[in-house]
Design a protein that fits this description.
The chain is an alpha/beta fold. The protein has 10 helices and 15 strands. The protein binds 6-O-phosphono-beta-D-fructofuranose.
Length: 382
Amino acid sequence: MAKKKIAMLTGGGDAPGLNAVIYTLVRACHSMFDCEMIGYKFGYRGMYLNDFVKLDNNTTSGILHRGGSILYNSNKDNLFNYSVVENGAEVRKDVSDVAYQNMLNEGVTHLVVLGGDGTLTSARDFARKGEKVAGGGIKVLGVPKTIDNDLPATESTFGFDTAVNIVTENLGRLHTTAESHHRVIVVEVMGRSAGWICLHAGIAGSADVIVIPEIPYTVDGIVKKIEARSAAGKPFSIVAVTEGAAGADGKPLVEKFVPGSPDGDRFGGVAKYIAGQIEERIKDKHEVRHCVLGHIQRGGDTSPADRILSARYGFKVAEMIRDGETGRMVCLKGGKMESISLEDVLGRGETGETAKGGAKTVDPNGELVKVARALGISFGDL
Ligand code: F6P
């Protein structure tokens, strides 16, 4: 069997578990077949600039537990719509052929892309390029990643469990200070338009109110819960809010539009806004504070569960390379490692594509919401 040259990259935002996938993939591939491996730096940008590092057991030693990515991340380098400066002006161009040729010149036979929906959409488009090349071109495989856990094509993405652990721990920390001061603390967590992190951590961390994008909140609903707790002798409350949550108007608070990013809108400010609204109503009884957990949710070490999930993904990709597969993404289905076509993985953002089936969001009438309600947790609805 001819020697394989496997390139990989980590696109989009970082998520704890990327390094564990790289660590496992490198070891599994070397144990299964003869190969060389390289990693492009800063996602697709490295592919375009031909900027890569050699990956082997030595250069990837000691990274299994570490968050971030040793290959670095970028979430605004879509090579099919890339920002270049021409005649002193910024223009957007499709530079994907340049990147593809770079790979061919390097003798790359396989490309493994670790990323979220934007990154995987490009992976699909690189796989399509291969179909037009005589002999099949470079084989492309994807690995799903996002702390938001909102990819419908897989039951679970790595990074999510770590984020839930971090948020849960921080809700506990905020509880003790809120209780001491008889305060209400509104905590903003990540997740974009999906409330998974907030819902899981909110239940595990005993939030009193969980505000998620899937269930429009009302200030009245949140205040009602806070007052009910006070009346029951609990004059403090924790309100956990997803960054993309919205009230009756359905409009989340957008801090900034980020051109070139597949996510587009950067959410932010909802915790501060809700805290201000609540304070107007209850300032005679409680002080209100807000806290934005931000990128703390993605930092530090990877949780043991995410290390295992990532290792399983990495191992499965190695098997798929061995078996000659292309144009597919590994996924978790019924608790088992499977794969699906990249054609069936959703796209979002500036490619203008409509998500296939949309992002995976929380069912407002689903089991976990019912569990939370049974625990007395309010969703800020009336
Ligand atoms: O998609 C993952 C995520 O962490 C979201 O939860 C969050 O809205 C976004 O990325 C933040 O992106 P950035 O790191 O570019 O600020």
